[in-house]
Design a protein that fits this description.
14% strand, Rossmann fold, alpha/beta, five-stranded parallel beta sheet, homohexamer
């Protein structure tokens, strides 16, 4: 492989895609040595649970619309979990354009890509406690204000797919008579 | 789901993406009633065979670069085969943004999406015999001129991934001493 | 599809099939608008655990024998779990006769079938605390009276397969020397 | 396991269930030493192909209705193919009530169940060339008379699911412009 | 099958292989009626987790080297978990030479092989609390002395694969900025 | 990884293991720069077919016994096929000790390991037409002399598992009445 294009990978579950993700991607886009960015939508097979309410397709739509104005070439791709850590790097590589750099703070991801010879870069911590997905899903369930924590394009997607209603329905208990 | 956006699905193997595909996508992009286009890269799990030499990631790179100038919002996504036809529509829907129209000349795809209530539209036949993938892979193997049948961006991707050399290596027989 | 037959789906794990299930099925059989009933034996791939001691085949035998006298046409079928909620409805539909109504109190099942356009009906609560499977398996383990909570045909099946002995063997701890 | 009930297994693809199958089952039902019959619908995951047009659920519906009057207790169950012959017997056993006898003329099935210690009985040849599935599907495609080769209840199921139309749609070629 | 060779199965996860395992195998090797020993490396698909840090290949290397001097013929084989207990015995049998005896203290393993007609023998308790894998992995993480609890050949393998470093990297939390 | 041990991989289906395989392994064992040999039993999940009659466990037993006298440390391991060529190298690596050299004449195997940076060495052609598996299985079926083409230990294993009888049973046609 002889190429001068340098691609980086950014991996997340994006349940939903929020301002914290956006800030991290803005950070990567501004780095001098990255030319193209691969955004991997992990746990792609999951949906309709409290932890993973949205389908891979829905999450891809959120991200694609949020990045519409980005100048860098981006690839937004679903990656299903694979129950064998030793195959994870090969699994991701087979579904993505070739890349050299991996952005992640997950220590398992760091270890797997390091063993495979990739350059692994930590992510700067961007107001994690305010933006993280768990908190946003909780606000959605409580009927509180969540829209300010996500890009407006993401809120529009959630409207289109009736996402808040789905989350609330799943959260109901089936224990009552 | 209450949305006024109309999305269409276009499904192919793209081994490789060629001018015939490009002409079909140009045709869809010009239709009045399609707002966004989902391009599904089928048989995503296959690579390194004579029929499917390129990985899903490589094919996605080809298509994304070829469509860089397109005004319509497009989603280019890998779809693995699933050995149960009766799950195929649900499988694709879970990995893609919601869509209503399916462009395909494949009668199985037409039947499956028709049974599921989708609008299925046939594709106009665009010089099929000149552009089809089998013929282009054959030209690659024979060392003949193939670049004029694919977008220039696709030829550049094939250079980056050393695609022609891979195809030739796989085509060698292991029967000699 | 042009048919006047209306089929309903009833989904459970049936570990084991008990009088509570029987009461619910009696309730469905008496509804005016249901002609045939599909009984789906969920988590069909599980057996030999404290939560799921009996195989799908054993559970199907329990149910078939318990329903021997029923006038309504019934189908008793194994359904393996599928680790993708977005495929669950298609998965069940491919293994069952066509149906229109789903009886369930499980909110995930309700949501998945509602999104797919099915009529979902809640089940009346029939002495849940007395009859539920967990409690019956506990009685079996403790050597207490459990037979009165299941149809006599089910007790006969459990005898034939030596089911109580299996449950007790699995429950033993392997921590002693 | 201490039981006096003797169950037998009969395995087929049933694409569709026809008079030949019915004759074989009538033969088994009349044997003195079989008390209950398990009918396994093989290749359950396949549908929507020329060789396997009907889903497992549809085939189960055909068989259940055709056997409505049978006095013997029968179990009609879907069995997915498993790509490991050495697990096939255990796979079937886990999804079916316990059985001791296997009726089959397939030599692989005979070998696998023989190695596992089952009694394997050959089936009498019942007008194979007239009734076999391939021929009936061919008649359906040609628009010729096929209804006399299947029980009337099966013809009714095929009407309900619009089965002939599906078969014809799949059989169309997608090679024309 | 007419053979006078008697083989036994010993099943473990071996994370890592330690002196406790070695003592148990020494015990089996000395039994009068066992001629050959099959050592099944369970949960073979797992690696790179705190509970299962080492790959199947790495564990097989540990055991093979530790048993280099053993006079008995041994087979050291990877066995992936299978999410269906009812197939587990057939799964193991298909990947191993024929065996008749199973050594295990795990009650599920005992039940599954007993139901399948195997002779199941309990293992003598060999200083379990001192040698067990959990404790050794904890020592590795704490930087305390662990080498005396494993054969020297195993320590050499862990050096070659940089195993302690992997374990420590995985154990780091990703919660800090 | 800092090791001075050099391991090589030799991959085959071994249906059955024969003198041609033995000659190739003798050749590898004599090379100056290989210290240990990993023998991968491919298509491990297949058995009971005309092309793949013997289980992985049976083939492992054949090879282990045939190599009993070998001085080099060998690992004989089952490797199931994986329907994704792009994962094949990672799949094998996760189940084997670390290796650097791959012996193979198969062009796909050569390409996959070359792309992954391994040294690939062709095998010398050792009387291929006399020894190859297809021919030996044909002799077994015809009742002709096959024992001289395999090590005597392999013939003993085939006797123990009644292998020839299995092959002949599978080869029977089920077309007769």
């Amino acid at each position: 492989m002889s190429t001068n294009v340098c691609r980086a990978l950014f991996l997340g579950r994006f349940q939903p895609y929020h301002n914290g993700h956006q800030a991290l991607i803005d950070h990567i886009v501004q780095s001098d040595d990255v030319d193209e960015l691969v955004i991997a939508v992990g746990s792609a097979q999951w949906s309709h649970t409290l932890r993973d309410p949205f389908t891979a397709g829905e999450r891809i739509m959120m991200i694609t619309k949020a990045l519409a104005g980005t100048k860098m070439t981006t690839y937004v791709l679903p990656i299903e979990d694979i129950e064998r850590n030793s195959l994870y790097v090969a699994h991701i590589r087979s579904l993505t354009p070739p890349f050299e750099i991996v952005y992640s703070n997950n220590t398992l991801v760091q270890e797997l890509f390091s063993e495979a010879g990739f350059e692994v870069r930590p992510l700067p911590f961007v107001q994690r406690d305010r933006y993280e997905g768990t908190k946003i899903r909780e606000l959605m369930l409580q009927g509180e204000e969540w829209k300010k924590f996500v890009p407006t394009t993401v809120a529009a997607v959630l409207d289109e797919i009736d996402g808040i209603e789905r989350l609330r329905q799943i959260a109901k208990t089936d224990k009552q008579p």
